[in-house]
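note to self: dont lose this again. the chain is below, predicted strucutre after it. 348 aa total, dont forget to put it in the shared folder this time
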Amino acid sequence: MSKKIRVGILGATGMVGQRFIQLLDGHPQFEVTALAASERSESRNFADACNWKLSSPMPSWVKTMPLQACQPPLDCDIVFSSLPSSMAGTVETDFARAGYAVISNSSNHRMASDVPLLVPEINSEHIGLIDVQRKNGQKGYIVTNPNCTTVALVLALAPLQQAFGIEAVIVSTMQALSGAGYPGVASLDIIDNVVPYIDGEEKKVESEPQKILGLMSNNSVIHADFAISAQCHRVNVSDGHTEAVTIKLKKKTTVSALIEVMENFQGEPQKLKLYSAPSKPVIVLSEQNRPQPRLDRDLEKGMATIVGRVREDTILDFRFTLLGHNTIRGAAGAAILNAELLIAKGYI
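---
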């Protein structure tokens, strides 16, 4: 591209906002031109207001950028939103009505019937819902990516749904601290401990996959018909959500066929060679004690689901363990990949 698309980031100082800045640094298609944050940070320089928590240094270009209010207008063409759900709903709607493409990591609009809940490898055709949003003459629109736990799960489920059909899924998650933002969970609550409750998480994991794996028909999504039972836990890991999955399929198959289907899974991002796309959306490891967050979360630059311990189950059909990087593919990286697909399809 001869000219980069100007990007604004809503919620720029938070954990996901910081990950947006890191992943957009040097991006060939996007240039960050506007940052917005809460009222207490407004008018301050980014470096003064942000408690930078990533291992890589804060990019020099962002340090002196001023923080603005989370309201239009902003000096940009599209906005990435990492706002908390307490404020994202209204703010994102305001930006869409003002003509901006809103690429959101927040949960507020995910299940709206006219908003794509997008995982480009799986349901790129769902971007047609943008046209439904635009029927009233509005130029702007909202596109969402899933919950950080959901996106890792559906990348493993999608090839199985395509090849064998799914009847039921049981998943128990072990979720990283960064998923709670900063400062997140108090140290005295999580050291030497597992917290078996994350507010609202189980409902998201039990409902979002059906929309993502659903089929477009007459400008709407017919949700997939399988059931999911989820139990979600917070564990003392910095990054990377681990999930223990048990699955019942509609067609009989074998462990080797299951692995082959997941390893060979490809989608639109790989065909289009999108900049942030992993070459392999699903990686299956053969070691008995993998995947592990510390060892495997950064494979494919954090953009893939890592699967291991694929085996037959004693009650349902099969079980396996998966891992996803929750702030990269589970958040900022997912939104950026969605935006890259929207460019490729002519929506940006």
